[in-house]
Amino acid sequence: MEKLIQRTHLAQTLLCVGLDPIGDDAQVARRLAEVIDQTAEYAAAFKPNLAFFLSRENGVQLLRETVRRIPGDIPVILDGKFGDIANTADHYARFAYDIVGADGVTVNPYMGDDAIVPFARPGKIVFVLAKTSNKPAHSLQDVALTRGGYLSDCAAQVGRKLDEQHGGIGLVVGATDAEAVGRLRSLSPDQWFLVPGVGAQGGDLAATLRAGLRADGSGLLINTSRVLWQAAEAGAVARQLVEQINQLRPVLA
Ligand SMILES: O=c1ccn([C@@H]2O[C@H](COP(=O)(O)O)[C@@H](O)[C@H]2O)c(=O)[nH]1
Predict the structure, then answer these.
(1) Could you report the per-residue pLDDT of 155-209, keeping only the tens digit for each?
(2) Range 2-252 classified under CATH 3.20.20.70
(3) What single string gives the DSSP state of each residue in 153-202?
(4) First CA to last CA across the chain, in angstroms?
(5) Which of 39, 81, 171, 209 could crosslink 130 through cysteines, CB 3.0-4.6 Å?
């Protein structure tokens, strides 16, 4: 978390560069290097999605090389959406942190606290899925509870409780539902949100920033993946996004 906060301050950016590599094996390593090198200056974090690496032969090797290419002062969040009993989660955590070298992960909280706690190592960041960006998420996450609120609020409460106990726990909240961003921000006023859904999924950047920024103008990591991967000039697109985001928030002190 320290590394993330320092990076967002020094580089004045809340942009998370998603790495979802597609294309044939021969081209992909070169394109990954290109996207990383062109966007690093604008990146608050990088978010490789595990599925796009595991679907390739030698994908773990490619993932490790990708993480090694990312400058050491920029946090790497491995988007694996892990979530299993503690014994198994511990092995996922070893994979993410000790084999891949990630600084953080995404975790699915459906199985409860013990699916999350093994990832909460000192110095690591864990983003717990609360309200995801995919439209059909509403069929589960927007289920209303008899005691009031929604199922996604329970995920946020678990995330908040674990943050108080362990530190370093944030939430995943999609930019496709700005209302949920605002509601979850009021439930979790201090936590960092990893926010996918801007770009290819059509999330509303301005509404998300209005609803989710903390009073100090930070607290959101705005992710975009395909638009950067597909861009002729990934660096130029990243710069524009950072400018757009910074115009809509108070500049960090
Ligand atoms: O709620 C979620 C959680 C994770 N993702 C992941 O983020 C990127 C989004 O890619 P785009 O190309 O910018 O749409 C991708 O890796 C997803 O698996 C998400 O979209 N929503």
Answers:
(1) 999 999 999 999 999 999 999 999 999 999 999 999 999 999 999 999 999 999 9
(2) yes
(3) HHHHHHHHHHHHHHS-EEEEE-TT-HHHHHHHHHHSSSS-EEE--SSTT-
(4) 17
(5) 171
